[in-house]
Design a protein that fits this description.
Structural class of chain A: mainly alpha
Strand content of chain A: 5-15%
Oligomer: homodimer
Number of domains of chain A: 3
Protein name (chains A, B): Magnesium transporter
Number of helices of chain A: 22
Shape of chain A: elongated
CATH architecture of the largest domain in chain A: Orthogonal Bundle
Strand order of the largest sheet of chain A: 1-2-3
């Protein structure tokens, strides 16, 4: 029935059905909606109708729906549901999502939520939560199908059918030995294309691409995007299969990691989104700004030190912002290239050296180009050839150094397993500010007599 | 056999097998490798062995392998293969990958490659290439299974088995009417869980989430990550099903779009990676830098205009870099928050207003905090209370304006369907530089008598 309806029409129909207490109509509408859409509808209807909305929603849809909304909303919904119904929901929830939901809740709250849950389920979740955030162990789930190696294709297919409900994706079956060690994988496609009596052992693919529970989620994302997998198996140190990571979670990881890079490149502070409250946002942004304020003062004190030079040739001040700005810009450019490159490449020393020399060349080319331009401009503008040469040569040197700084600093951080994006844009910019002022005024002071 | 071997051992084994001309051994090794790994091996072995490597590689593996390497390498390999074999490969290639390969080749080259190909195949590819880059039509492929609505579950399963080879993922079957219009979808899971004699029409899901061929790939990524789909159907204006977009391609899209945002936020120039040649990289980075150089000179001319003020109170120069820098930093922070937020949110006017006021508050909070700090520092450092007040009040105003500029400029661009990230970090920074200098010296000039 919803087929031809727009989102708004659906919203109205839902509200109507809730007002009239027509559960059957409500269910007809819901049935045709994706969990994400159901979540959107819930958030769009007036809050006075939400309790009934939750009351009418069948347990399964309720569970899928709750996994589509923000964490804060999830907690509100669970409150509304009451302990008994919410326990049922938690039992059905994918345990990676449940683990995320529980993260950073007060222990008592977690206790309360888990206590009522199905013992096995809550055990699984508690295990998940023992892994570091942003590792494979934390984002894996247990909705996969495993088969013992002695199975035939027929047995495998039967088990698959039997577990179809449970498994998130049916694309791969994982083959384990008697100690539940992962020894092979077979795609559902291969099953379809083999004889029913073939032994799994003989047709399975035994060089399995897998990750350890402690693998960083960024590494996992790299593997999944390289191999175009739908799911990637996760094993314990002893090789036991303990879960799978699904591609849908990996897309979220990729977006999250990209956002973190941008956050750091722009020093915009941890996870500020459109709904963050002003005070929280300001609080998260301030530390960076205060740090940069003090580094900025260092530039000031440099100018202070050279105030003699500056007072003699005030014209020097005209080019200060340009030189400092340009050095910062080229540094940020190099930084971005490095941070971006590391998303899909692993670097060995040979490539590092190649990269640094590449950037050196870039710095030289950029430097010469801009230096010549500015030297001419300075000369024409101020009618002082020496000034032109001072400004030009300063810009040449600062651009080369700035480019290298933007390349080498993040690479060093990477070498020491620190996220290179920590060398945030503004930080590099400010460091380059300081370098450029020292060089600029240094050169100017050398030629001060000729400048006047 | 490769099970226990490291990558390097495998490389050595491959080289050995090629040297000895032991094709069977070579194939045993290859068989256990993923296409991506085969590609890595090809790139790692000395180039003198590559011809034999290609010669030994069976057509199917060859095709999968070629889709894993960079475009330049792909063209080299096709050269080596010769027209006849490469045509066979092109026939087998996924046509979205083929389209990408052919993009920006000289027409004659495309002609040559397509001419020998299977007529139908080459037709499909040429159609793909008529769509705008970065749209659904361009990244879709035709490796999906469709069924007419009158099919029973049994017929559907049979067709699925029959097309298992062809389809990239078997998760969904798409249901079409007599005009090939997309009218429903059914997941393979649902098939497994239904009766063999059920009619597809009765059990299919008819509110299909689909995209139009012209949809922007970023929009497609949003949908796939919201709904956790493996494939998303693509339709023509008339509703005909013409292809599917697969999640593995979407991961690449997400990474690419994130990189583009970072490129623009840092003005680091279009697609520069670790392998880009210095001159190319410099050439791509220079336009921005030159633009920013001239904008930087504007700051210079502002200082020029206020040189009288500056000469009277040189101390003003000390705080110039800090004020300009801080304004730039807060602007970049706001910019990043907006650009990042737009990745997963669609904004309506209500939210825009909310967001702008949020940022206004952030600006005020940040401004007051930093202004008080710097006022005290300036007073203590220079022992001049008026200077402290001038610097402090300037910073307060510039931080508020800078924050708003970083928010409003990208939002306006977004409103006019220009990618908000175009308002690149350095651009915002430089604009804020100029604003801050005007405000700073403006205020200083007002109080010049008291400053001296």
């Amino acid at each position: 029935m919803t087929l031809s309806m727009t989102e708004n029409e659906i919203t109205l129909a839902i509200i109507q059905s809730l007002k009239d207490g027509k559960k059957s109509i409500f269910l007809d509408i819901i049935e045709e909606l994706q969990p994400y859409d159901i979540a959107q509808q819930y958030l769009h209807i007036p809050s006075k109708h939400r309790n009934k909305f939750l009351l009418y929603l069948p347990l399964e849809e309720l569970t899928e729906f709750i996994q589509e909304i923000e964490r804060e909303d999830q907690l509100l919904v669970l409150e509304k549901l009451g302990i008994e119904k919410s326990t049922k929901v938690l039992d059905l929830m994918e345990n990676d999502n449940l683990a995320t939901l529980l993260t950073d809740l007060e222990p008592e709250k977690i206790e309360e939520l888990l206590s009522e849950m199905n013992q096995a389920e809550s055990q699984v979740v508690q295990n998940l939560m023992t892994y570091e955030p942003e590792t494979a162990g934390r984002i894996m789930n247990n909705r996969y199908v495993w088969i013992p190696k002695h199975y035939t294709v027929r047995e495998a297919v039967d088990k698959l059918k039997h577990f179809a409900e449970l498994a998130e994706y049916l694309n791969y079956l994982y083959v384990i030995d008697d100690e539940k060690k992962l020894i092979g994988v077979i795609s559902y496609k291969d099953l379809l294309l083999s004889e029913l009596l073939d032994k799994i052992e003989d047709i399975m693919y035994s060089r399995v691409v897998k990750v350890d529970v402690h693998t960083d989620q960024e590494e996992v994302a790299k593997l999944i995007s390289r191999y175009d997998f739908i799911t990637l198996p996760v094993i314990e140190e002893d090789g036991r299969l303990v879960g799978v990571i699904t591609v849908d979670d990996i897309i979220d990881v990729v977006i999250q990691e990209a956002n973190e890079d941008i956050e750091k490149l722009s020093a915009s502070g941890k996870s500020i989104d459109f709904t963050t409250k002003p005070f929280v946002a300001a609080y998260r942004r301030l530390p960076w700004l205060v740090l940069l304020l003090f580094i900025g003062l260092v530039s000031g004190s440099i100018i202070d030190r050279f105030s003699a030079t500056l007072e003699q040739v005030v014209a020097l001040a005209f080019f200060m912002p340009m030189i400092a700005g340009m050095t910062g810009n080229t540094g940020t450019q190099s930084l971005a290239v490095v941070v971006r490159g590391l998303v899909s490449n692993d670097l060995d020393i040979k490539q590092v050296i190649k990269l640094v020399f590449r950037e050196l060349w870039v710095g030289i080319i950029i430097g010469v180009t801009c230096a010549v331009m500015i030297a001419l401009i300075a000369f024409v503008w101020q009618g002082n050839i020496v000034l032109g040469l001072v400004v030009g040569s300063s810009l040449l040197i600062t651009l080369i150094i700035g480019t290298l700084a933007g390349t080498i600093i993040p690479l060093i951080l990477y070498k020491f397993n620190i996220d290179p994006a920590v060398a945030s844009g503004p930080l590099i910019t400010t460091i380059n500010d300081i370098l450029s002022l020292l060089i600029y005024f240094g050169i100017a002071t050398m030629f001060i007599t000729k400048l006047m």
